[in-house]
Amino acid sequence: MRWGWIALAAGLLLYPAVVTDPFYRDVGALVLLAAIGASAWNILGGYAGQISVGHAIFFGAGAYLPLLVYQQMQWPPLLGVPLGIAVSLAIALVIGFPTFRLQGHYFSMATIAVAELVRIVVGNWDFVGAAIGMMGPATPRGWWDLTFRSAVPYYYIFLAVLALLLVVTWQMQRTRLGYYLRAVRAGERAARSLGVPVRRYKLYALMLSAAFTSLAGSLYALKTGFVDPESGLGILVSVQMIITAALGGAGTLLGPLLGAVILVPLQTATNSWFGGGGTGLTYIIYGGIIVLIARFEPGGLLEIWHRHLAWRLARRARTRHAA
Amino acid sequence: MILLQVIVGGLLLGAVYALFSSGLTLIWGMMNFINFAHGEFVMLGMYAAFLVVTYLAGGPAAFGLAAALALFLLGVIIYFALIRHVMRGPMLAQILSTFGLALLLRYAAFWIFSPNFVTLPQTALNGSINLGGILLGVPQLVAGIVAAALTIGMHLLLTRTRVGSQLLAVAEDRSAAMLMGIRPDRMQALAWGLAAASAGIAGALMALSYPFSPSVGETFALTAFVVVTLGGFGSVPGALLAGLIIGLIQALSAYFFGPIYKDVIVYGLFVALLWLRPQGLLGTA
Questions:
Q1: pTM to 2 decimals?
Q2: What is the ipTM for the molecules in this complex?
Q3: Within 10 A of A20 (CB to CB), how many other CB atoms are there?
């Protein structure tokens, strides 16, 4: 187990050194970014079982604020990152308070509606660029603008953030918050009857999830230097996080990363093989994958691996017993 | 006079909202299940109408019927192939199943029909009539009246017929219904068929007077959520009343504030409703 972790860390650290083609380095950075977004969603959607379809709001807040402070005040975009997190936390409180009275499907519906509301408002608001969107610095004024031509600096920034997020999630798993959230996922009424302050802990999960989703949005905006209502706040942004986490395994530590390693190259491939029409095909495939996961393997791909491990342990125990 | 015309127009469109929302509320009432692909069913109803008009030169009655039949079949197939297997599984599987279906249907339509907006060619229903100074398009008038009649028909089917009682029995207590000799699987498949058919006809009716593209489904799904929430989950009369209210609010806000605000105001109302009255207008907590 420990060797597995070391191999994973070494693989991720050495990837840009081994792969020198700029295109594949870029894909590597995008994989990490997708893993950050999906891992952030996973805290609320996976561990706490609250299926948000509105996480694009937090991603959008994180993506818009750095470019907004750059365009409106010529500040370095980096200063907008904490602002994005602050705005996301405020939105999380406003949404979480009423919607957490609701359960299951109802929560998902509410989050879609709020996200659409925000997308339409931002798309018609000139101060934030309306339908055209916002641009970052084209040429950096200094390193603090975080505008690099190569994907490698972004790759390592993303890797550091992903590592931080995974450590936080791992810690969460082992503390009271993690146990409470899993209790909420297993059954809200049962959790409440056992004395779990359900709404408060759901709100904690939402806020933690929102803060990291916002960070993912900021990293996206810093790297691409551009955001518009579709790329920052569209429903497909939320869909991407959900499917990435669900494919790998919602509610597991490494599931989102596994999902990103599979989906991002797949999306890149369909886009480059089929050109502009590829976007449509990508989402046909995405939809198909989501349906298949829901129907056959709701635990995600890691579940298959876990079953295999359990089977091997059982076999080892049997042979030892026989001997 | 223009204001009156706006109000009547809003109510007529609201009746169509009520029709497709009654399908969503039926499924919710029976199975505690939200179909996130419901808006895509409406969209498919529109394209069913488009295909019948383009390739078979059928009139409104023909394509309405075709949309209803095609979507009924699709609903039943989706129930047996997908919903039956996930409905008692984990919440994630329930939500992802129809959510993935929505993506699949939407982008398959993108692939087949291209993302561009289309309009139906002129049908037998066109022109407008003058009702005491109010100018009403015939397609809108027919759509509104047919939709309201079908929604009331759905309510009567559920409350006044043998099949309706069987559906409600399954909704109330699956095992007790089974002991009475009702097959829950058949009833739930029927509910999915009826729900999809209601969305299909509603789509065909709207195709009479509005241009459409594969991406319209999302808006209709959200509209249906708002209507069902306002009317109370599982209540068809509630959906009718709420559909009319939402149609009216949309028409008035488009008239007073401009078209882009019509959805903003409706979604804002939805959020306010979640704060104040999550059980809906006619629902009970």
A1: 0.89
A2: 0.86
A3: 9
